[in-house]
Specification:
Blueprint (H helix, E strand, L loop, with lengths): L15 E4 L9 H16 L3 E6 L9 H13 L6 E5 L4 H13 L3 E4 L3 H13 L28 E4 L6 E6 L3 E6 L7 E3 L7 H11 L4 E5 L6 H10 L6 E5 L2 E2 L15 H6 L4 H9 L13 H7 L10 E2 L2 H14 L2 H14 L12 H8 L6 H9 L9 H7 L5 H13 L4 H15 L3 H13 L7 H8 L1 H9 L2
Parallel strand pairs: 1-2, 2-3, 9-10, 11-12
Antiparallel strand pairs: 4-5, 5-8, 6-7
Helix pairs in contact: 1-9, 5-6, 8-10, 11-12, 11-13, 15-16, 15-19, 16-18
Length: 476
């Protein structure tokens, strides 16, 4: 994935989608859901997915935010086919198109000051009218324009069509029609000549041959303006699909201000990328009643016809459940690689983890874990030191049971080292001391792995190894 300042020539008729984030804050799950659907649609249709960084808000944009966008997409394996393109690198192109519009009389200079605009809006609101620019500087046949004020740099406004409607068939919201008289003449270049958002977006979508714009419904109000600019440039607009908002657990719009986490934090907390894709897919799209599905199934099933119209609400407990299902189904060797990375973050050396046990440890414990972090906590017991839970130690490792523990330690010192032999050693000690399995297994678990509740004790002990077990049992 490289920065590209020139756009390629796409194949005619090929589906092309885009994700166009603004790097003014970290990317959260609500944002990345808006990337997931255009990525999935492009993949499902054999098309192209384009990444465009809309960084024209120079004061608020940051490279750190760009890096989190790229890291998040890399983690989720949602790499674009083209891009990232940066709007700030395309200013010459925007200015050239502005000159074309000037030449055709479709833009005009407006000298109305901000103070005059504010006064106009106040007057309109007092009269219970919709606040909007009133066309003072719009040139019309026979109209006398005001005298140009001295020393004022004008903005450029787009001559929006008058009369009629602008309409589109939204793939989520259905038919939308807006009267042109509801739209004022949009500012498309600032006094310093810098083009504005709605204009840049249209030029980009034309140059990048975008066929489908799948984005959040906070952009619905921009769409009629953008459609009119497309047509002014002699182009038909793309197909639009405006996605409902993702709400947080409190029912508010998901945002950094409302406590949303960066996407990369879920990576660090031990979530699986395929589980995250599965969960995010269901935040606004469905395939019957299917809750758990693979990435391949999602791409096979995905289309724009089953996007939901209602806002979806994030539920971290549901995300954990989805992650747990994917974790249980994951190949043990692949899972071990992820758990190894978590263990190395905790200070264990890669060489210490290369003894071949980790895939078997993952297989043994993954059914009781919902993240790779939780799985790493179990796995760490097999490589580092253990501090038994004090309450469980007092409850289970009593003076009455210590002779049986010592006898087990002696028996384990000489038996064959496999599950069957370890199980036989337990049965021998239980019979000799007149005990039931839980009376001995619980204290042994506390001493060897720190807690009384684990999978099958013989499987756990086999993976721990003879020497480690003898040391830990003797410490009891």
């Amino acid at each position: 994935m490289t920065d590209q300042n020139t756009t390629p020539t796409p194949t005619a008729g090929r589906v092309r989608t885009r994700f166009a984030p603004s790097p003014t804050g970290f990317i959260h799950l609500g944002n990345i859901r808006s990337a997931l659907y255009p990525w999935a649609f492009a993949r499902a249709m054999g098309g192209d997915f384009v990444l465009r960084i809309e960084d024209t808000d120079v004061e608020r944009s940051s490279q750190v935010a760009v890096d989190v966008i790229l890291e998040s997409m890399e983690w989720l394996s949602m790499q674009p086919d083209e891009g990232p393109f940066y709007q700030m690198h395309r200013m010459d192109r925007y200015r050239a198109v502005l000159e074309e519009l000037k030449a055709t009389g479709l833009v005009y200079p407006c000298y109305m000051s901000i103070a005059e605009l504010d006064a106009l809006r106040e007057k309109q609101m007092a009269a219970k009218e919709k606040p909007r620019y009133d066309g003072t500087w719009r040139p019309e046949p026979g109209k006398a324009l005001p005298a140009i004020p001295e020393g004022v740099q004008p903005v450029l406004r787009f001559k929006n069509p008058q009369g009629g409607v602008v309409a589109w068939d939204d793939k989520v919201k259905g038919r939308i029609e807006i009267r042109n008289d509801e739209l004022d003449d949009l500012v498309i270049a600032r006094p310093d000549g810098t083009p504005t958002y709605n204009f840049c977006v249209v030029v980009d979508d034309i140059d990048m041959a975008i066929t489908h714009v799948i984005r959040g419904d906070d952009h619905v109000n921009n769409t009629p303006r953008q459609i009119n600019i497309f047509r002014a440039l002699g182009k038909e607009p793309p197909v639009y699909a405006h996605l409902p908002t993702v709400l947080n657990e409190q029912g508010e719009k998901m945002s950094k201000r409302n406590g949303a986490k960066p996407v990369t934090q879920y990576r660090d907390e031990g979530y699986l990328p395929d589980a995250m894709v599965n969960y995010l897919a269901r935040l606004g799209w469905s395939h019957g009643d299917d809750e758990i599905f693979s990435r391949a199934q999602f791409l096979e099933w995905f289309n724009l016809d089953h996007l939901g119209r209602s806002a979806a609400q994030f539920d971290e407990a549901k995300l954990r459940w989805v992650n747990a299902q994917h974790l249980k189904a994951m190949d043990d060797e692949a899972l071990a690689a992820l758990v190894s990375a978590q263990l190395q973050k905790r200070g264990l050396a890669a060489a210490d983890l290369a003894d071949g046990r980790l895939p078997r440890i993952c297989a043994l414990f993954k059914d009781r874990c919902d993240t790779t972090v939780a799985l790493a906590e179990w796995a760490q017991v097999f490589y580092g030191d253990v501090t038994p839970n004090e309450a469980e130690l007092a409850q289970h490792v009593t003076d009455a049971i210590k002779p049986a523990i010592a006898a087990l330690s002696e028996t384990l010192a000489t038996c064959e080292w496999n599950k069957a032999a370890i199980s036989a050693a337990f049965k021998q000690v239980l019979a000799a001391h007149g005990l039931k399995m839980p009376q001995l297994a619980m204290p042994v678990r506390v001493l060897t792995v720190g807690t009384a509740h684990t999978p099958s004790v013989d499987a756990v002990l086999e993976l721990l190894g003879r020497e480690k077990i003898r040391v830990r049992l003797q410490n009891g």
